[in-house]
């Protein structure tokens, strides 16, 4: 993949952080170029360009209303669900603009999974929740469904807690367990990229810590793009960090360690140190 | 409520406040009286139906027995519930409710075959698929359908559905010459009039399903079809069932449309083009007749009315149960 | 398929059948949604057609229709008595049902404590709303017509209709009262008003448009009801009632009487009667919608 450095804000400063992945070379999987998003007449994303590397955790931080969730929802075209939403510019997945006419959002979402802010298990059994993606994708016959459900639940660090009650409703689990169930549901069909929209904001600190550990493991197999309003979380778990500030502008994007230790922009420094936002 | 507490100087209730509080308590009592009238209505219905039905079975009303009247059972419950001929006003009377119960159940089941699939599909279309502009036209149209008096539906059956829609089919496909009334036209017309009930209540239930669930499924690469059938309908299922039960209950108690569509011939038949009689149609036929008060045929009106009332009561209680379950799930 | 374009990026996903399935399903449920619309159109066309044929081929005169009462001879029959009876029925139904219904709604929304009795009242109300209309007719027949011996008079019909629409009035009034924000109530309490003063001076005026809308819609339902009137004996007369204690036949019962006749002339009289009935219903609904819209733009 060509990376078109000249248009991006990426700094290629490589340094080692404790995620242990940062030293690996970047291969771009998702890329935005001059992306604008409008809700009716309001602009939610303003001319954003960035390259998101494969098998790493990329965090997006910024004050609420800064457009970070909107950006996330462009990647798998969940914004299509909103009538007034209009997208201009390019957002590519493996070099292909996902908003091209010949891209089917249904197919796209089978490659790019998503976990939402509020746990949203279906009112079905734990098993059926995890198997749902494989079923709607018509793959339940090709795979050993029981094995896939177990793999996904283990991947989401939930297997040991629920293996004896797979038939009980997903709604009976605690909030943190529900969110891990949603992660299991997202990874069961084995997507390439997992989008996470503030996945821990509705959880207590202990449940949130479990999810954070999980995200670290997930990055071995998947590309994780996470929106968070919690700067410490971004610093702990991500390899790269993008800082959005109000108006939907991407102010700075780079290695997490550098962003937090030596930001280029005064606004970013103010935001990180809590003077702004 | 408790504005008249006795704490602090100068704010204990003075005379003015006292009078106002008295007016308040009086208003409360009067309003409670209004509410009590609704309970009184239910009790009156029970009492009137049971009292008069007793006269049908035992020859004397409960009230008459209480003031010393004598009674003996004239119509056995066995005959009433298992007899297959219904003709209380005939010169050789028969008191088996089965034929008219069959009529009611046949119409109800037939109508459900029309209203449930069409109503559910309409609700799904309105809730998940339709654009705002289509929705803003379709919904009021269905409301109009719901607001048309049942007598007009009966007229539609007798002047259009039976002679124009069904007549030629019966004639050409089955060689049956259709009469003025037919069971099938009753089923269709009651089905049509209960579609708005199924569609509006089911749609409310579907709209109450949180978007989080839809998004969760879309994010897994589900299509609208998957989301509609595998997420929205299962999540809304108790609300949808409540709408079915309401439609069924309505069909059981439906009177004018079935009377004009299906007729007055009490018989158990599998031929959809033949004339039948529902329990409500029997009640109308009695109202058209001139039976004297206190005769067995007059009292039979109440026995049938009691059975009808109990059938719809069971449906209403079931509806209530489903509705409450749905509210527990999403609120 | 469109998805296997870009160097097989999505080439491993074949959505051909998925999309066909989606299109077929959409077609199916759209067709089902149109069924009700088509039936409504057919019904209205059928009524309009009978109306037209009635005026042209059966020479039904609209002037005579509105100025003459019913008759056993179709060429002499009119609708005046039935219209007057229905208007009177509606008037007395409104008086009987409105105050009791509104009172119940106010009690349930504003006063009722959350006790078992209140829940019983609510459950009873839900059940009453589902009682078949003909049963209300039976109640009036047994309790009034033959019970206290009033005979088949108009007020007995009004009582049956009032009991029938009471749950509708109560539920819509409850909704209107619930729509009044608590801040309005608190504002009144803060000035030292009692609960009843608050309701009387602030809550009811604010909720009144909604309550009236619901009441008009309930009365529209009542005016089209046939079965309860048949039960109280509204079929045996066709002249104009002179008061609430007179015998009567309303518009729907007159239409039923005509529609049940074998003569085509009577059937077409019924068609003309239905046009009148539907026009009145349309007007009432129009007024209700006007009230609702006016109220909504104000808030």
Automatic annotation (TrEMBL), chain A:
GO biological process annotation, one example: phosphate ion transmembrane transport
Keywords noted in UniProt: ATP-binding, Cell membrane, Membrane, Nucleotide-binding, Transport
A GO term for molecular function: ATP binding
SUPFAM superfamilies linked to this entry: P-loop containing nucleoside triphosphate hydrolases
Record GO cellular component, one term: membrane
Positions of the ABC transporter domain: 30-272
Domain of life: Archaea
Signal peptide feature range: none
Record's keyword annotation contains ATP-binding: yes
Pfam families documented for this protein: ABC_tran
UniProt protein name: Phosphate ABC transporter ATP-binding protein PstB
Species: Natronocalculus amylovorans
Lineage of the species this protein comes from: Archaea, Methanobacteriati, Methanobacteriota, Stenosarchaea group, Halobacteria
Protein's gene: pstB
TrEMBL record, chain B:
Gene Ontology cellular component list: plasma membrane
Residues spanning the membrane: 30-50, 100-126, 138-158, 178-198, 227-247, 298-318
Biological process (GO), any one: phosphate ion transport
Domain of life: Archaea
Amino acid composition bias (Polar residues), ranges on this chain: 1-15
Keywords assigned: Cell membrane, Membrane, Phosphate transport, Transmembrane, Transmembrane helix, Transport
Localization: Cell membrane; Membrane
GO molecular function ontology, one term from the record: phosphate transmembrane transporter activity
ABC transmembrane type-1 domain sequence ranges: 101-319
PROSITE patterns in UniProt: ABC_TM1 (PS50928)
Region (Disordered): 1-20
SUPFAM superfamilies: MetI-like
Topology within the bilayer: Multi-pass membrane protein
Entries under Pfam families matching the protein: BPD_transp_1 (PF00528)
Function: Part of the binding-protein-dependent transport system for phosphate; probably responsible for the translocation of the substrate across the membrane.
Family named by the database record: Belongs to the binding-protein-dependent transport system permease family. CysTW subfamily.
Entries under PANTHER family matching the protein: PHOSPHATE TRANSPORT SYSTEM PERMEASE, PHOSPHATE TRANSPORT SYSTEM PERMEASE PROTEIN
Protein name: Phosphate transport system permease protein
Organism: Natronocalculus amylovorans
From TrEMBL, chain C:
Assigned keywords, A-Z: Cell membrane, Membrane, Transmembrane, Transmembrane helix, Transport
UniProt topology in membrane: Multi-pass membrane protein
Transmembrane segments: 24-45, 82-108, 120-145, 151-171, 202-223, 266-291
GO BP of this protein: phosphate ion transmembrane transport
Domain ABC transmembrane type-1: 83-288
Major localization class: membrane
InterPro entries: MetI-like, MetI-like_sf, Phosphate_PstA
One GO MF term: phosphate transmembrane transporter activity
PROSITE patterns: ABC_TM1
GO (cellular component) term, any one: plasma membrane
Signal peptide start and end residues: none
CDD domains for the chain: TM_PBP2
Location of the protein in the cell: Cell membrane
Top-rank lineage group of the source organism: Archaea
Family that this chain belongs to: Belongs to the binding-protein-dependent transport system permease family. CysTW subfamily.
Full protein name: Phosphate transport system permease protein PstA
